[in-house]
Amino acid sequence: MDKIMETVPNFSEGRDMQIVEKIADCFRGRENVKLLDYSADKDHNRCVMTAVGEPDALGEAVVASVGVAMAHIDLTRHHGQHPRMGAADVIPFIPIRGCTLEDADKLAKRVAQQIADRFGQPSILYEKSATRPNRENLSDIRRGEFEGMAEKMKDPIWQPDYGPTTIHPTGGVTAIGARMPLIAYNINLSTDNLDIAKAIAKVMRHSNGGFRYVKAMGVMLEERNLAQVSMNLTDYTQSSIFRVFEAVKREAARYGVNVVGSELIGLAPMRALADCAEYYLQIENFKFDQILETQL
Fold first, then answer.
1. Greatest CA span in the chain, whole angstroms?
2. Which has the least CB within 10 A, 11, 58, 102, 260?
3. Within this chain, do residues 156 and 191 fall inside the same structural domain, yes or no?
4. pTM, whole model, 2 decimals?
């Protein structure tokens, strides 16, 4: 493939694995599309697909996956720790090779039009595709979640860019757009006090004066009885994983709390993990091309 695009769509289902598999199947066995990874979280009640492919073929797979989500996910009965406003909640397109953010933007708009035409699902363009400054930040769009979106969308500044002018009754509304690579990174704390995780998240996120390229929130992992700082690193070259990790550790220590583990959701660039190895091992004069796989 001369052109490779990536998509990391998030769907509001993380407990019924039959539905998760049906969504994943939309990316399997398709010419010029490869499913790289998928994961489901019961506490968040959310699944994340990571797929790459030729842009047109990838767009078709995404449209098919939205159809499955619309048919099997009913947000009037959905509950989970992660904020959500749509059965297919957010669909980013990321240029990988031989294509640009402009190409990703065009694909996002085409997919938005198709899911509106086929399924009656409204979409709001976000990140680099945003049509207004207030629509760039996903958390701003999603504020109010499914339960509050119908009222929110009565305001002209929150009208969908594609599809009906209000939410789908069970499928809500979808955010679609072009963006650069993002790392979904969570840190688990040795406490069941959600307020501590929320306080740390507030310090970490850019909107409250924290790291420029970090979005963060506190959530509760009910099955493990642990509080978690759940984050998106929108530019790991500026807000690196290891700096974010160390900052959370320092903040947690103020409350007498330890970090008991962390997790990646989906995939991360090799460079981001190599930066962590260089930092913690204190490797002198380290070069990225010293990693064996970069020479293959």
1. 57
2. 102
3. no
4. 0.80
Kindly report the number of other CB atoms within 10 A of residue 140's CB atom. 14
105 with 233, same domain: the answer is no
Task: Please state, in angstroms and rounded to a whole number, the distance separating the CA atoms of residues 108 and 265.
Answer: 22
Residue 233 phi/psi, 5-degree rounding, is -100, 110
pLDDT of residue 292: 87
So what's the pLDDT on residue 60? 98
pLDDT score of 267: 84
Here the CATH number for the domain that contains residue 90 is 3.30.990.10
Range of the domain at 244: 183-295
Show the tokens assigned to 110: 């085409």
pLDDT of residue 1: 74
235-274 pLDDT tens trace: 898 999 999 999 999 999 999 999 999 999 888 889 999 9
Domain boundary, last residue among 140, 163, 178: 178
In angstroms, the Cα distances linking 291 to 156, 238, 271, 277 are 51, 21, 10, 11
Domain harbouring 210, CATH code: 3.30.70.670
**Is residue 235 domain-shared with residue 264, that is, in the same domain?**
yes
Q: What pLDDT score does 111 carry?
A: 98
State which residues of the chain have pLDDT below 70.
none
Q: How far apart are CA 13 and CA 288, in angstroms?
A: 38
Q: Is 82 a catalytic residue?
A: yes
CA distances (Å), origin 140, targets 41, 135, 154? 23, 7, 16
Question: Residue 187: which of 250, 275, 237, 269 has the closest Cα?
Answer: 250
Alpha carbon 162 to its chain's center: 21
Residue 90's CB is within 10 A of a number of other CB atoms, namely 23
Domain count, the chain: 2
Catalytic position from the list 44, 78, 79, 82: 82
